[in-house]
Specification:
This protein is α/β, with parallel strands linked by helices and about 475 residues long. It is globular, with a radius of gyration of 23 Å. Helix content is about 40%, strand content about 20%. A hairpin with a 2-residue loop joins β9 and β10. The protein starts with a strand and ends with a helix.
Length: about 475
């Protein structure tokens, strides 16, 4: 049995702003089948504290990055958790990273340094009976953990850093260094410095024992100038320590046969009954029930996601016979663009600003196409939900999108392996061609149904990926496969 501490700033269903939470929430259960025990270290946000059950104090701190703190162990949201209860850092309503003004909390450097330091102390025995062998750190918010292990008093735990999105790096002024509780050798060896700033993600990338990211293609991309966001040189130098493991989804939470958010449940043999879900969506978004494919978006509305391109193509899509519904929020210009499209095309375009988890399930269960035109995408989960629900993904050929969707070119259609529409490059002209190609394919019902069924039969669960993580843990600990079987 391997004991792992997963260090994350969010985990579903407790606190979620994006796909990171889905991963950290679902992976522990999948790893249990591979003799891996996971406890998740989370900040003591109000939502986490409110869900905490059977809490017991592991350790109390008098002055912990500006105030008192307690390490609490218990259960929350179906997870075994250790919570850093530090009200001066985390007792704030709303988004875990942003204040009411939608700007970063000015003390985020302190909030996530404290989380990382708590993980380091747990690796050194602060959790008492729980002594993790692996500290599995997620994104920049946990990026300092490997640096503490490397430069402060050593711990027996090995460190892994998983990059979910290299665009977010945790950059702060160097003046905070003396308050990080990090040995000065980290500054002398430039482990945390980045063009005169402190870079939390760089610290982890340079010092972790193992690096992973969330798809094989993204692991290749981030070693290039086009996708590395300034860290491609470091990643190329550590190429031997970097692997890509594609994310899965929680196939119990996302199951069209049992999903209570759907108007009608179904499987790949009863896919025709999805029509009732589509009609429910049309009523929800004030879309007419005329023929033609119903395209959908469930996303943050940002240029990274390529949705500025889609805004400019709505008129062409409607003219070709398509309809569009959008669920999301983000850049004001993109939001206003979709709102304007609703006014220009009543009954053909619908927009729900914000996020609604049950509605996102209904969209996957009723729309015909899920559009994910990202300029870069480490893995993506939306297209995996689409495959699972027979909502055909239309994606750009980047990152995990390229790894998980098989393009419906004529050869793939003839071979019976196509699962979606894939386009490249991530430019408006290529996206326009893909949208029109989807309209044409939808007009071939037999081809479309086969593509839906093929997608629904795809293995998008965590099973294979969890096995890869478990093998990586064993390799890092020097445990042979035969030794594991003997235990």
């Amino acid at each position: 049995m391997i004991d792992v501490l997963s260090v994350a700033s969010e985990a579903y269903p407790l606190i979620k702003t994006g796909g990171l939470a889905d991963v950290t929430g679902a992976l522990p259960a999948a790893l249990a089948a591979h003799d891996v025990t996971v406890r998740t270290l989370l900040p003591g946000y109000p939502a986490v504290m409110g869900a905490l059950e059977d809490a017991r104090a592991l350790r109390e701190f008098g002055d912990y990055f500006g105030g008192p703190a307690t390490l609490l162990a218990g259960r929350a949201g179906g997870l075994d958790v250790i919570v850093l209860d530090a009200p001066h850092l985390y007792a704030r309503a709303g988004n875990p990273y942003l204040g009411p003004d939608r700007k970063d909390w000015p003390d985020n450097w302190r909030r996530f340094a404290a989380l990382s330091y708590a993980a380091y102390e747990i690796g050194g025995g602060a959790a008492g009976e729980f002594q993790p062998q692996i500290l599995h750190c997620h994104d920049w918010q946990a990026g300092l953990v490997p640096a503490y292990v490397r430069f402060n008093s050593p711990t027996p735990a090995k460190t892994i850093l998983t990059v979910h999105n290299i665009a977010f790096q945790g950059l702060f002024g160097f003046e905070i260094f003396n308050e990080l509780r990090l040995d000065y050798r980290a500054a002398q060896e430039s482990a945390v410095e980045y063009y005169g700033l402190i870079n939390y993600l760089k610290a982890g990338l340079q010092t972790a024992d193992q690096l992973t990211t969330v798809s094989p293609t993204y692991a290749l991309e981030i070693k290039t100038q086009a996708y590395g966001m300034g860290l491609e040189g470091l990643l190329s130098a550590r190429a031997d320590a970097l692997v890509g493991i594609t994310n899965g989804i929680d196939d119990r939470e996302w199951d069209p046969q049992t999903d209570r958010a759907l108007h009608t449940t179904y499987n790949h043999n009863s896919i025709e009954t999805r029509q009732a879900n589509r009609r429910a969506l049309e009523l929800r978004f004030n879309i007419d029930d005329t023929p033609g494919p119903l395209f959908s978006v469930v996303s943050r509305l940002t240029t990274q996601k390529g949705l500025d391109m889609l805004v400019g193509l709505v008129d062409d899509l409607v003219a070709a016979g398509g309809k569009l519904i959008v669920l999301g929020s983000g850049d004001a210009e993109i939001e206003n663009g979709f709102a304007g499209a609703v006014m220009r095309h009543p009954g053909k375009v619908g927009f729900n600003r914000g996020y609604d988890e049950p509605l996102s399930h209904l969209i996957q269960g009723g729309a015909d196409v899920m559009v994910v035109p990202s300029r870069f995408e480490p893995c993506g989960l939306t297209q995996l939900y689409g495959l699972r629900y027979g909502c055909v993904p239309l994606v750009s050929r980047v990152g995990g999108l390229a790894d998980t969707v098989i393009d419906a070119n004529e050869a793939a259609i003839e071979a019976g392996v196509a699962t979606g529409i894939v386009f490249a490059p991530a430019e408006p002209y290529a996206l326009r061609d893909a949208l029109l190609r989807a309209v044409q394919l939808h007009a071939r019902p037999k081809v479309w149904r086969k593509m839906q069924r093929r997608g629904m039969k795809s293995d998008v669960s965590w099973d294979a990926s969890a096995e890869k993580y478990a093998k990586l843990y064993r390799k890092l600990l020097g445990v042979k496969e035969d030794d594991q079987q003997d235990d």
